Amino acid sequence: MTETKPTTLDAEPQLVCMLCGSTGELQTPELADRHFGAPGTWSHLLCPQCGLVWLNPRPCESDLPKLYADYYTHAATTEGSRFLQAIALGVPVAAMAYDDIALEPAVRRGGALLSHVGPIREMGRRGVMGLEGGERGRLLDFGCGDGAFLEHMRSLGWSITGVELDPRAAQAARETLDADVVHPSIEAALDANPEGFDAITLSHVIEHLLDPVATLRACGNALRGGGTLVITTPNTRSRAHARFGRNWLHLDPPRHIHLFDPSTLTELVRQAGLRIERVETPTSSYHFVHQASALLERRGSLPGIRVEDVSLTVLVESAVFWMWEYALTRCGMDCGEEIMLRATVSEEHRQAPEEAAS
Questions:
Q1: What's the CA gap between 164 and 75, in Å, rounded?
Q2: Which of 17, 47, 143, 149 shows a CA-CA span of 20 to 30 A to 27?
Q3: Is residue 300 part of a domain?
């Protein structure tokens, strides 16, 4: 049964930067939802002081579920050809200390070979959110969608738990994984796992949140001592954003509330009381983002974010631009398509609950 699309959305002006309090300047006006048909017209504001980009007006919390009634979920990483399995499983086994995992010989050999190809090795590393085999323990994925990432990590030896706010996606995850490992909130996940988590991941989640600082603080409270938080999110300094402007796939109004660059994401995480360990900008999604953005530029919409009937010219262009972006990031530029930030809990964050209680 297809759900009726909303005809209106409650929204409220958001003129001030949540990070530094500066008044935003208009960056991209007159934006519409070109993927899932949410009503309304939206703009992006840019903070002249810190560089944060945000949606104005922004949807009210009560209407957020309407934006995801027909939202897509990604296919499981480990499905598909032997080549894709060699990237998703073989590369982590060969290059990231997951060598105790049993694989078909062809997948293992393919991963060993592909791990020497820089952009392909980056794809395999991004597929496990940069988490090494030696870090394995209890993993919480916040915003786990249909559970594909958690299923992938379970196959690599992690003990898994998911948090998913969207009821339809959560039900899909429970059917894929296990009803007992998928929860509606971080607090519920922590109640079921009072010892906490060794790693928490947020993959393309932080940009959807109205109050990302509060979510990151809750994640910090759920980490064990020495635990790791990994965030990935679109990068407004990416080459595809520079190339496609208002047709960049990752603008995605009205679902993407805040858009970050490495400095603004770093500041957000610091304000949540977490300590930054590493910030990088992977390029591994560039080929898809370029193709989707090119279709948006040509057609004006891309229903369901389905990339189909891509011309040979766009396919070749996306590969060439991907290699260019990868080369630039190897030279130290922070222009990759995503930001991947790794953090841990600071002592101040751990002491804060005790100080509040006293």
A1: 16
A2: 143
A3: yes
Q: What is the DSSP string of 104-131?
A: -HHHHHHHHHHTTSHHHHHHHHHHTTT-
Q: pLDDT tens across 125-156, in order? A: 999 999 999 999 999 999 999 999 999 999 99
Give the strand pairing for 11-12 and 58-59: antiparallel
3-class SS string, 23-48: ECEEEEEEECCCCCCCCCCEEEEECC
With respect to residue 349, please indicate whether it lies within any of the assigned structural domains.
yes
Give me the sign of the Cα torsion angle 244, 249, 253, 259.
Answer: negative
Distance separating the N- and C-terminal Cα atoms of the chain: 53
Q: What is the CATH number of the domain that holds 322?
A: 3.40.50
Integer angstrom CA distances of residue 195 from 32, 170, 223, 225, 272: 44, 23, 9, 10, 21
201-238 pLDDT tens trace: 999 999 999 999 999 999 999 999 889 999 999 999 99
Torsion over CA of 197, 202, 207 and 213, rounded to 10 degrees? Answer: 10
| 286-299 and 312-330 helices, crossing angle to 10° | 130
CA pair distance 37, 139, nearest whole angstrom: 34
Residues 6 or more apart whose Cβ sits within 8 Å of residue 309: none
Rounded Cα–Cα distance for residues 156 and 219 (Å): 23
Regions of the chain with pLDDT less than 50:
1-3, 73-78, 353-358
Token pair for 36: 């899932």
Is-contact 138 198, C-beta < 8 A? yes
Q: Please report, for residues 31, 63, 75, 115, 250, the alpha-carbon distance to residue 56 in angstroms, rounded to integers and kept in the order given.
A: 10, 15, 31, 43, 16
Tokens coding 109: 């050999």
Evaluate whether residue 354 is within a structural domain: yes
Domain that holds residue 60: 28-70+204-358
Q: How many domains does the chain have?
A: 1
Measured over the CA atoms of residue 244, residue 246, residue 249 and residue 251, the dihedral's sign is: positive
The b-or-e profile of 182-191 (16+ CB within 10 A means b, else e) is: bbeebeebbe
What string of DSSP letters covers 68-87?
Answer: GTT---PPPTT-S-HHHHII
pTM of the entire predicted model: 0.92
